[in-house]
């Protein structure tokens, strides 16, 4: 009753005010004021907004928790639901579609979650995604103290039960953000074609790394480890990174340095990566102008150019910027970080990167060997070591005598499910490739001899003249 009478007197006041307002306030503005007065009087609801990214561009951990938590909460009342599943996920993933709601009950009250996705008006920037948590004002304390804690705890359980790895890349639209997709790299140490001793050394190194929390603390070193993978294209550098992530159950951050315009942006990007992750910078020789660093060093000799130097550093990503940051600030605020650099040309790298202590392990990913071939044959054709195929001897002999990448061998083995057909195809491919290589070698030797001869005769002529 009392609510009704309050409503009646409020409505009367509003109506009275409205008729006065009609005379002095323009129609459009009047409409907004009226609806605002009505909604604020009646609204007993409170809304919390959980945006995907924080203001500084870091992924909001609460958003991730909410996303996981709501998976189990979506029921028949939600009209539009997004479904997803990857081979590694045991169950189908449900998530709210744009502008959809779900009601959740906690203790003796209800809350409502709504998912909102706003397309950018300029078509350039990233979509803005957030969840709204809507509930009665009177539950404010409980929502903050217990409901949200329950959401986080449940999300943690879901995450640890599922162990879905993610790969983060920098957003195409707004380079400020990392965007994640489920990492579904099939590579494991078992399927990796590598010398068994090398493989074991890497796995032992990783095992030791994850177990040594106390050691790193005791010696005052950051709990991080760096690997430099080098070798020709198609020898398995990216596959090894996938195998490492699967082995450790770490997420990957794939950093394209060319997408970063200066050291400040680099710093921000690195600071917004999470623990237990692998930071990957592929083709480090191509992605950084090594001259940058040399130029910096030269310029530091001249006092007059120090402001110019500063401006330049602000405008570019330098190797020294990257290394300083990896060694310094970033290391001191994270745990269980792995950094992997890859290159096709180790000799092109800046000595600063190769300096002892910089990268903990240098791993040479090289051409296919006989034992690498056996692993690939087991992966693709299911042939076990105990019962080798009759063509094995000839194939192994050829592989050991030439430079052929595991990618090339794998490509041939995929051609047929029939082991004999695939192996015969590989044998023919190897023979052709060897002939091609031998011909090239002969040609190169011929040119070398000819050049030598020409030089010699030139030298003689010159001697005769003098
Ligand atoms: N050592 C390996 N073990 C198993 N498969 C391999 C290996 N190397 C290459 N492959 C196969 O070849 C494909 C390409 O290899 P990958 O991308 O790992 O090579 P990469 O060394 O990273 O090459 P790039 O230098 O061009 O990046 C892989 O998807 C995989 O199927
Ligand atoms: Mg690669």
Work out the strand percent: 15-25%
Overall structural domain count: 3
* Backbone shape: elongated
Q: Span from first to last CA?
A: 124 Å
CATH class label of the largest domain: Alpha Beta
How many strands, what sense, and barrel or not for the largest sheet? 7 strands, mixed
The CATH topology of the largest domain corresponds to Rossmann fold
Tell me roughly what share of residues is in helical segments.
40-55%
Mean pLDDT: 82
- E-strand count: 13
Describe what you observe in this structure.
50% of the residues lie in helices and 17% in strands. The protein folds into 3 domains: 44-164, no CATH class; 179-364, P-loop containing nucleotide triphosphate hydrolases (Rossmann fold, 3-Layer(aba) Sandwich), CATH 3.40.50; 391-457. The protein is an alpha/beta fold and 466 residues long. The model is unreliable at 1-18, 30-39 and 290-304 (pLDDT under 50). It is elongated, with a radius of gyration of 32 Å. The strands form 3 sheets. Strands 8-7-10-11-12-9-13 form a 7-stranded mixed sheet. Strands 1-6-5-4 form a 4-stranded antiparallel sheet, with helices on one face. Strands 2-3 form a two-stranded antiparallel sheet. It has helices at residues 2-24, 27-42, 61-71, 140-162, 196-211, 213-219, 237-248, 263-271, 284-287, 290-299, 306-315, 319-327, 329-332, 351-354, 370-381, 392-400, 406-413, 419-465, and strands spanning 45-51, 81-84, 93-96, 101-106, 109-118, 128-136, 166-170, 178-182, 224-230, 251-254, 277-281, 337-343, 361-364. The longest helix is centred in the last third of the chain and has 47 residues, at 419-465. Helix 3 (61-71) crosses helix 4, helix 15 (370-381) packs parallel to helix 17 and helix 16 (392-400) runs parallel beside helix 18 (419-465). Adenosine-5'-triphosphate binds at residues 191-194, 233-239, 344, 365, 406-407, 410. Residues 191-194, 233-239, 344, 365, 406-407, 410 line the site of adenosine-5'-triphosphate.
